[in-house]
Amino acid sequence: MNVGKGKLLEEFSLEKAKASVGSEIEINACAHKVKDMGGFAFINLRTARYVIQAVYSPDDCKDSIEGIREGCFVKATGVVREEPRAYNGIEIKLTGIKLIHNPGNDYPLHVSARKLGCSLDVNLDNRGVALRNPVERAVFKFQEGVVSAFRQFMLDNSFTEIHTPKIVAQGAEGGANIFRLDYFDKEAFLNQSPQFYKQAAVAFFDRVFEIAPVYRAEKHSTSRHLNEYIGLDFEMGYIDSMYDVMEMETAMLRFMMTYLKENYAPEIKTLNADIPEVTEIPAIKFEDAVALIKGSKSKNKFDLEPEDEVFLCNWAKENHGTEFIFVTNFPASKPPFYAMDDKEDPRTACKFDLLFRGLEITTGGQRIHDYNEQLEKMKRQGLDPEDFKYYLDSHKYGLPPHGGLGIGLERLVMKLLGLQNVRQASMFPRDLVRLTP
């Protein structure tokens, strides 16, 4: 029997390196920047998370750095020493450096600069290179933290993680904003939301969540829209009202911000991110929000405009000291069809949006769990219940009172980091014109 000769490779750890001052360590890295000073040279080594300053001297290093340039992959050994002037507080005095791979071409972007200094389109066209820049890359390490915090909070609060189909027979949101597929001899769609499956799962798991792609065939070309994004979704049973869902999201966001500060401080520093404190989040009914924004002339409005969202967030900050605000009780005639009508005011639905720093980042609410009530609302909105037979099976055989929400990951990251365009928070964005790289 042949046994493999591989070994378990260990990634560079800044903590271990700082604990190894005076000792020799080995690093696999990319030569991020090479600065020849004549008799010696500085070589910045880019690892998966950090850039570490190394110093080369022919008197101390057994290998030559001839041929090593920006973009080369190397295996470096050296003695760790404290250096307060270096970005991470240490530097490596090189004792050896081996070239692993020398790329055939120079970078098309200024990867070693603090900022790339190019347009967003040039950045996205050269994404595989652009993300080697530490600032660009830090966005997605930070994004990992947002996802990790969400998942950890959900698991800590007895939610079960599920994985639902993205090729479906009907759209969860209805309407024209849905991608159609040829699925053998049938018409199929890319799922707009895991909504139907989340609701079904509440019957047997009580609480569920999913982190997965969402597809919207919206013909928008704005700084806030993508046609494929990552949804952070959860659904919970045995609720008394949509306010239970809102309270769960508030607690999750509070946990998330603390988690980011504790575990992603390097990225927060690199990106100069302003991580908010989350205390209590105020809520305002849609009708009251419209009156606050525009006055009585806007009573027939069905949704908020982007400038309205900015106004309400500014109002919340000035009057409640928070950058978040819930808007509740949207008109009942507005989709989605699964939103429960408010029993106290049937003109409105138990639906809410969460706004943050001038942008809607969450849509949620209480869902209809009664079979007959769901049939009636579908018919009022002009839908044929027969098209939703399998979705309605969950209602037919019983569901507990339940509700949930969906958060757009890229939008949340965009606002946490103060980015100007949601595409900056998508590793390889998909929009009206971009299908590559």
Q: Looking at the structure, what is the overall shape?
A: elongated
Q: Strand sequence of the main sheet, in spatial order? A: 6-10-11-16-15-14-13-12
* CATH fold name of the largest domain: BirA Bifunctional Protein, domain 2
Helix content: 25-40%
**For the record, what CATH class of the largest domain applies?**
Alpha Beta
Overall mean pLDDT stands at 94
Question: Which architecture of the largest domain does the CATH hierarchy give at level 2?
Answer: 2-Layer Sandwich
Total number of beta strands = 16
Q: What would a concise description of this structure say?
A:
With 437 residues, the protein is an alpha+beta fold. Helix content is 30%, strand content 25%. It has two domains: 14-101, OB fold (Dihydrolipoamide Acetyltransferase, E2P), CATH 2.40.50; 134-425, BirA Bifunctional Protein, domain 2 (2-Layer Sandwich), CATH 3.30.930.10.
Helices, strands, pairings?
Layout: H1 14-18, E1 24-36, E2 41-46, E3 51-56, E4 73-82, E5 90-101, H2 120-125, H3 127-130, H4 134-156, E6 160-161, E7 167-168, E8 180-183, E9 186-190, H5 195-205, E10 207-215, E11 228-237, H6 242-263, H7 265-271, E12 283-285, H8 286-294, H9 306-320, E13 324-328, E14 351-356, E15 359-366, H10 371-380, H11 389-396, E16 402-408, H12 409-417
Parallel strand pairs: 3-5, 6-10, 12-13
Antiparallel strand pairs: 1-2, 1-4, 2-3, 4-5, 7-9, 8-9, 10-11, 11-16, 13-14, 14-15, 15-16
Helix pairs in contact: 4-6, 4-7, 4-12, 10-11
